[in-house]
Design a protein that fits this description.
By secondary structure, the chain is α/β, with parallel strands linked by helices. About 45% of the residues lie in helices and about 20% in strands. Bound molecules: adenosine-5'-triphosphate. It comes from Acuticoccus mangrovi.
Amino acid sequence: MMAQYLAIKAAYPEGLLFYRMGDFYEMFFDDAHLAARALSIHCTTRGTHLGEPIPMAGVPVHAAEEHLARLIAQNIRVVIAEQTEDPAEAKKRGAKSVVAREVVRVVTPGTITEERLLDPSRAALLVTIAGGKGGYGIAAADVASGRFQLLATSEEGLSAELARLDPVELIAPDGLTLPHLPPRVTVTRRPPSMFRTSEASARLAEAFGVADLAAFGAFSEVEAAAGLALVLYLQETQIESAPPLDPPRKDAPGDVMVIDAATRASLELTRASRADGPTLLSAIDRTVSGIGAQRLAERIASPSTRVETIAARHDAVAVFIADPEARAGVRRALKGVSDAMRAVGRLAAGRGQPRDALAVCRALEAAATAAAALPAERPALVAAMGERLAEAPGELGARLAATLDERAASANATDGYVAEGVDAALDEARVLQNESRRFVAALQADYQQATGVRALKIKHNAVLGWFVEVPAGHADTLHGIDDFSHRQSLASAVRFTTDTLRDLESRILAASDDARSREQAIFAALVADIVAARPWIAAVADKMAELDVTAALAEIAVAARWTRPVVEEGLAFEVAAGRHPVVEAALADASRFVPNDCDLTPAEGDAKARATILTGPNMGGKSTYLRQNALIAILAQAGAYVPAARARIGVVDRLFSRIGASDDLAAGRSTFMVEMVELAAILNQAGPGALVILDEIGRGTATFDGLSIAWAALERLNEIGCRTLFATHYHELTALADRRPRIANATMRVKEWRGDIVFLHQVEPGAADRSYGVQVARLAGLPAAVVRRARDVLARLEESDRGAARAALMADLPLFAATVAPAEPAPATPHCASRLVEALDGLDPDALSPREALEALYELKAARAVDQGEG
Ligand SMILES: Nc1ncnc2c1ncn2[C@@H]1O[C@H](COP(=O)(O)OP(=O)(O)OP(=O)(O)O)[C@@H](O)[C@H]1O
């Protein structure tokens, strides 16, 4: 057996091997230790290997799912080896022969299909990447439900796409450098040969049974390669029983707002920075089903950039706001509806249970109920939902409802799940089962009478089957009767059997075997029908998800007093009395939130949008204001209403937001370095259609360095002409507003009252002259002596401040555009710098520590300065 175990382990070295032994999955050697730690189970030993005891741990098969869930949560993949023959068969080959076993499945985070292991309100995407520097292909599949999409992206877009998809498992070629990913993503490496582009398209077409992949859309080579790699990985891990995938769908990149990873993180769109913190999604989610919640998460993660799509979604929300009865009816119908496509996936993969078929049935019924509850007024999207949903429950739904009994709802139902009246032979077998049971009762009474033993009972257990039991004291009476033959003596009772009982037993067994196999045949036929109807069920489920989201957005719009935004082409950005949806929801009394306006729309006759520099005290509400405007843009383009009295927004094609800075020491980058890398990305990528939100850029270094960087960055953004909000504590920056027509100053109002400050959270035109940092520090509970001392120091500094002189100097700076042409020409090859570059070329970048790299960079800068005669 150990030889077999080791052979399987050698074939599947990655992951924990669940080796089936009877009613247990057992783990040996290192796996046993790993399992014991990961599952808090006991590790013992069993037998010896090369003279050493073999460590062993085990989990019962019936509790396997629960253990799988815990292992998957710890990013541990599990290889499942099952017994593939009856142990009796193996015995026939000889007393010592080993039962045949085979790996039937490898369970990984991106390939699970079990209801209990999946979060109902999140897609669990498996993502593969192919290609390289020239461009990447990405394939993404929600394996449980079979949704499958392909897309292409550039090298710089890779990180943003991965952040948008937010996969649970990523398959990448060995050696490919990946962007920074959150630790919750499991990264699996495979040899580059699995991602080859040659013939990928033809092989992928073959996997989907078409002659040409073009049947599903126009895909590039790298997209096909990523798609094929995903299919191959599924084959590798799911062996024979891979759940079906939809044909690949092209995800058009131009249709969604580009939001990079850092922006998503700083705005906490769908993931909070604190484990239990609120997100935009959690604050606004009023969906009533898992599929609706998944769809809303997608909408928030990928806001549209198509004006017509957005308007159609707003139209749909509008009718549900206007018709509260329809809204309530639809929500009642969809409440708690199961994820039909995941159920279909399990059924198709041969892992389904009667409850999955029942889930499909209930979902189809819910679709029909929802269709009936739709409002009378139907704009295009609602009409499309209505048409599709009205096809449900359809012939399939009716058949499922007529065939399945309520008992199918229980987990692991093995019998009794087919309703009465469906199949005559099944009903007959059940009658026989029932009659036989009644017959047992009658026989017991007969035997009691014939023997005179009132305590005589007819009982059943798994070992003996049916038997007659009498208290030990009465055993002799029965020994005397011919018909009763002895089976077993216990301390207090003696057990017998009779010919009549044996005969009865075989009839009961035959009847229940018969009933069970009839039920299985009926279930198999249902499964085949469901799988055949998969595309139709997918279309119905899609509309249900859409409907749930639409009604939910109407619900939150009413509850939180949101209004319909106007989303149009162009660069407008006009928000009247905007609010922050998450901060407002967190306030005990939502009316305490102070609404604020924002206007970045280009001035009359100007082609470029405007920027606002926001100054004001700490805790004044600057970050809240910046974020709320970004969130309003996201909500509007996701098709939602917005927390504002009015909003008019020209489509935002890219959103950048940097709020504060965090370090990434693990990747060898200090706080300031991270901030600068991110600022570089913004300045290089932002175009006129972008919305840029910058909060305290440059604060992580010496004041003058930070101020200079902030100044230059703001000038650059103003040249690009993108809509910009810039919060800062560098009051000198406000001088820019006087010199640039497209820059305005705004400040957060505060009142000073007996040496304390009162935050009014109100944005008003103008610039703040101070930050009230010391007052805020006092409010935070800094020791009084330290506060007093800080006041002294501040007073001294302010006395000697040459702030006014500095501002005058800065006002004298030549304009940015005049000093630096937008496309900066490369400096003439500097002699000294080029020598240094040559020297750097000889270094192995992989062996370089981040510190050494930074030092080398500074050397390079210095050398260039020498070349340019500056040093
Ligand atoms: N418009 C508002 N109405 C009511 N409360 C607000 C509003 N804006 C902000 N607040 C409250 O003030 C707190 C501080 O706001 P915020 O973090 O935006 O200040 P800040 O000016 O960015 O501070 P710092 O400069 O210290 O980073 C928030 O947590 C929130 O509770």
